[in-house]
Design brief:
This protein is α/β, with parallel strands linked by helices and 290 residues long. The protein contains seven helices and nine strands. Helix 1 links the parallel strand 4 and strand 5.
């Protein structure tokens, strides 16, 4: 079943008219982002057979944000995986990732954290997205939305929020580090090529490295040795800081993989690294109780 899910995960949404108050994206984009090159004629597609999957509206502090949710269709509560999007929004690649997780028995939820700031379905270049959306997204708002998303998973009757993991890709990998450091509900985290350094600002005051010693859960980092934007040395430094604080962090580097090696719709996709990383992620979740 694919479509719009309500709070019980079974019926169409009955939330009334969502309060927008300046929100730009009222619904998720269809298809794939237009803002980056597509490298495959046929990206991975995971069907929704045996799943409840579709778009929901999550109540947040200032209205509602759209999110994609997928879970097994059977009754009962399922461990939750929060999926942090790339800078490109919750497009088909992120939705498919949620369906893959649901096939493994999880309720996967991918909120559109940037709904307030821009319509990512219409943006066609990375510099514009970074300037007009990403740089204007307060970390505090993102973490507040994480709490709202987990509350939705609990009240839906389908999520077991005593067992929560988080994962994310690119900017979502960076946000995975931040969520692991700020949310004590998270039991396991897996960051895919998330930047650990970079510029800060009043609304984004700390890097992943700044927060590495404050992690609330074990974190696995999956990085590419050929990633020109994230030096492996910087990731090792974040790992060392975390371990010095007594945290459990494991960094796995794929020597020949570039940035975005899991993104199967892009030229950067590397099947062997992506599949190996996926299995490492699932094993990490299970090792730490999710």
């Amino acid at each position: 079943m694919d479509g719009l899910l309500g709070l019980n995960g079974l019926q169409p949404a009955a939330l009334g008219t969502p309060a927008r108050r300046g929100f730009v994206m009222g619904t998720l984009m269809a298809g794939f982002t237009m803002a980056t090159a597509h490298g495959q004629a046929a990206p991975i597609h995971t069907d929704s057979t045996g799943l409840l999957a579709g778009e929901v509206q999550i109540p947040v502090s200032d209205g509602h944000i759209p999110a994609y949710v997928a879970s097994p269709a059977g009754r009962g509560r399922h461990p939750v995986v929060l999926v942090h999007e790339e800078i490109f929004g919750v497009h088909e690649y992120i939705k498919d990732t949620c369906r893959r997780l649901a096939k493994q028995g999880y309720l996967a939820i991918a909120p559109e954290f940037y709904a307030r700031l821009g319509d990512l379905s219409k943006m066609t270049d990375v510099p514009t997205i970074i300037r007009d959306v990403i740089s204007k997204a307060p970390d505090a708002t993102l973490q507040s939305d994480v709490n709202w998303a987990l509350a939705w998973a609990e009240t839906s009757g389908r999520g077991n929020t005593a067992r929560v993991a988080v994962t994310g890709f690119c900017r979502g990998g960076r946000n995975t580090w931040l969520t692991a450091a700020s949310n004590n509900q998270i039991k396991a985290a897996v960051a895919w090529y998330g930047p650990v350094g970079g510029a800060t600002s009043p609304i984004q005051p700390q890097t992943a490295t700044d927060l590495a010693g404050q992690l609330n859960c074990p974190l696995l980092g999956l990085y590419g040795g050929a990633d020109t934007g994230i030096p492996v040395d910087s990731v090792r430094a974040a790992e060392a800081k975390a371990k010095a604080a007594g945290k459990t962090v494991e960094i796995h580097v794929y020597p020949e993989a570039p940035h975005g090696f899991h993104a199967d719709y892009r030229p950067t996709y590397r099947r062997e690294a992506a599949e190996d990383g996926w299995q490492r992620m699932l094993a990490w979740f299970k090792r730490y109780g999710v």
